[in-house]
User: Which sequence fits this backbone?
């Protein structure tokens, strides 16, 4: 099976729009689009993008007012975030409207094309933008109309522009807005889709909807951040090591465990840990990390040391991520299991000695993985799945299922081939595919387009799974999003809203039924719902 066979991936090959819930400041991109007005006013929370003036206040673009009024956008010189395009989303007066704002947005897309953006670590430049116009621009009461018009303008631009240009990602912190975005994107995709979805992909979406999907990722998720892959990491470590003899050696041909063993013996554990922190620490997360976090998996697993996934997940929930096995993993919060350690915990697993010391922990860690294989679905991206803990867990799972099915299968009947999960590779490696195919459904990247394009295909796949598995309707009864509902759904929403806010019964007490109805209506975005306690 190949990624190119997935309709969503093939549709996204030319250009693609991603959607994320999170914090735009923490997402690594090649350019950022930020909102302003025709006077060049910039709000304080965009200081990270535009910088500050000599007094430490957020930099304003007052001198660009005429250009913003006429052209609709202006590039911010020497912006600390890199290329930043300020877009006039508010107009010049209080009579701002969606159509006028969208015209200026379209002008900004042309300006992005003319800039010929460059990227170092991605297949295509990535432009990140907020859900514009719904803040101080005055269009918040028409957020549904903004979303629909914005998707129209992006679709028109991508459809009329050469393939292979920049990709876009819309980032919003509001749960109802990302739910509305996913709802509208899904409706538009399904309108033009053939409806042909591979069985393995239907399984991923079903697991995502049921809250039974677990994702495991490796160094590939951090590649677009510019963090070094293993061979480059070895070169950096050797360069910083005060050992001329070892520095002249080529360690890239060694097993990573053996190479790390030599480095730690030469420089010491403290030097090795400090060097990894210096080389792998990152203030931002990648698009891949953000997409994985937006799947809202009950458990995410990684062989990485960095905190990029935690940045992405915490920007969604506002709560710290439980990092296993150090933190308690109980409760409904986000959990990530780090198989090889964590940069900030002072515990890394890479050398022979460290792997030997880890043996006592291998069984419980493998047990966590196997529980997801048994009761959920495991999706692996950005990893070659060569880690011994992963391999042993999958093989034991395969043996267990084989034994139980063999014992219960009538003679003459074939045993169903058990799958521990799905592995998506960014390259075509027949030997590895054959090995992994023993326990996993394996999906290969397109070798003709290169690893970076395949990594982008994986991002498109993750985005599609998040879009299709989203069942959040927290926008449905919110008047701001009314434009996204069909006439029939608008009528249904009006009838549901008539049930909200009626208050308690004649005796002044709310029944359990009414309280449950109020909670349900609030989950659909109903405003003004009174929550009455049934406890005297």
Assistant:
């Amino acid at each position: 099976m190949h990624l190119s066979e997935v309709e969503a991936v093939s549709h996204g090959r030319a250009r693609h729009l991603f959607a994320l819930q999170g914090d735009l400041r923490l997402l690594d991109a090649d350019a950022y689009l930020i909102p302003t007005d025709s006077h060049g006013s910039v709000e304080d929370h965009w200081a990270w993008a535009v910088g500050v003036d000599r007094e430490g206040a957020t930099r304003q673009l007052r001198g660009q007012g005429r250009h913003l009024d006429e052209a609709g956008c202006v590039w911010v010189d020497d912006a600390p975030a890199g290329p930043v395009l300020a877009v006039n989303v508010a107009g010049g007066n209080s009579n701002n409207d969606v159509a006028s704002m969208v015209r200026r947005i379209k002008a900004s897309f042309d300006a992005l094309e003319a800039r010929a953006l460059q990227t170092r670590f991605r297949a295509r430049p990535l432009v990140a933008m907020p859900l514009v116009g719904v803040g101080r621009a005055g269009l918040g009461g028409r957020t549904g109309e903004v979303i629909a018009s914005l998707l129209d303008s992006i679709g028109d631009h991508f459809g009329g522009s050469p393939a292979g240009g920049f990709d876009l990602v819309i980032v919003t912190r509001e749960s109802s807005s990302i739910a509305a975005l996913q709802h509208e994107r899904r409706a538009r995709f399904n309108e033009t889709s053939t409806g042909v979805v591979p069985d393995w992909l239907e399984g991923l979406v079903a697991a995502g909807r049921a809250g039974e999907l677990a994702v495991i990722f490796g160094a590939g998720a951090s590649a677009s951040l510019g963090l070094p892959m293993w061979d480059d990491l070895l070169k950096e470590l050797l360069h910083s090591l005060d050992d001329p003899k070892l520095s002249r050696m080529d360690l890239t041909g060694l097993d990573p465990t053996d190479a790390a063993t030599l480095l730690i013996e030469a420089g010491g554990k403290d030097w090795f840990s400090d060097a990894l922190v210096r080389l792998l620490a990152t203030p931002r997360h990648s698009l891949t990390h953000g997409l994985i976090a937006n799947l809202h998996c009950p458990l995410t697993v990684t062989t990485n040391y960095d905190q990029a996934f935690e940045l992405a997940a915490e920007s969604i929930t506002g709560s710290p991520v439980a990092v296993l096995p150090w933190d308690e993993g109980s409760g409904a919060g986000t959990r990530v299991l780090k198989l090889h350690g964590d940069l900030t915990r002072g515990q890394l697993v890479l050398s022979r000695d460290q792997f030997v010391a880890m043996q006592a922990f291998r069984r419980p860690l493998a047990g966590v993985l196997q529980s997801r294989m048994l009761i959920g679905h495991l999706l692996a991206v950005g990893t070659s799945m060569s880690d011994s803990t992963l391999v042993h867990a999958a093989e034991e799972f395969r043996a267990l299922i084989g034994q139980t099915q063999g014992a219960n299968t009538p003679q003459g009947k074939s045993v169903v081939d058990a799958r521990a999960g799905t592995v998506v590779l960014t390259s075509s490696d027949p030997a590895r595919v054959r090995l992994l195919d023993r326990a996993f459904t394996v999906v290969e990247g397109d070798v003709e387009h290169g690893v970076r394009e395949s990594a982008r295909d994986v991002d498109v796949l993750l985005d599609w799974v998040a879009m299709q598995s989203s069942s959040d309707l927290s926008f449905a009864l919110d008047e701001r999003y009314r434009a996204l509902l069909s006439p029939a759904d608008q009528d249904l929403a009006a009838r549901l809203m008539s049930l909200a806010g009626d208050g308690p019964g004649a005796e002044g007490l709310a029944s359990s039924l009414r309280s449950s109805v109020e909670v349900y209506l609030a989950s659909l975005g109903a405003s003004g719902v009174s929550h009455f306690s049934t406890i005297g």
In short: The chain has a mean pLDDT of 86. The first strand starts at residue 17 and ends at 21. Residues 193 and 305 are 39 Å apart (CA to CA). The longest helix spans residues 352-375.
